[in-house]
Structures are given as C-alpha cells and as structure tokens.
Amino acid sequence: MFDPISLIAGAALLGGGWVAGRVSRRRSAPKRQPTEALCGCGHDLALHDRESGVCHQEKMRKTGYGIKEWARCGCQRYTGPTPIEDFFTPPTLPPAV
Questions:
Q1: Which of 1, 22, 67, 77 could pair with 53 in a Cys bridge, judged by C-beta atoms 3.0 to 4.6 Å apart?
Q2: Is the N-terminal amide bond of 83 cis, ω within 30° of 0?
Q3: How many domains are there within the chain?
Q4: Which sign does the torsion angle of CA 30, 35, 38, 40 carry?
C-alpha cells in the first residue's frame, strides 16, 4: 500500500531542501525608497494650491555675507504626476458658481 523507500526519499529531499535554504546566503532585494509625487520644484502636491497651482512652501536662501532668509518658492504651477483620484474623477467641491 505505502512504498517506504519513496516516503524516505521524499522526506530526505524535503529535509535537504529545507536545510539548504536555511544555510545558504539569502540575497535580499535592494530596499526601495517610497516613491513620492514631487513637483519640479521638489515639493509635494499638498503644498500647492489646487486652484491656482502656486507653491506655498518656503525655501532658505542666502542673501549675502552669510545671511540667510526664508523666501517663498517660485513655483507657479504643479508639474508633477496627476493624482489618481483626479485622473478618474475631477474634484467636485467647492462647486463652481
């Protein structure tokens, strides 16, 4: 009914494969950074106005002699990828009058 030689051979193959998998050096895939949808200015869509597209983030810039000040980002329009929810259905709120 049961062939003991086949059962022993199958168990040996299974055990050998398990041991080889545990002993061998595992190659891990390179860790990817989470992809973010960034504009050409380097800022996220959340920092851009939906209506006009102007960027509201501020950048540190040098004015001279080692003095630094905060200046508004010069981006006038979001140029990054279109969000998937805007691709399928455009935003309906606030209603246009």
A1: 77
A2: no
A3: 1
A4: positive
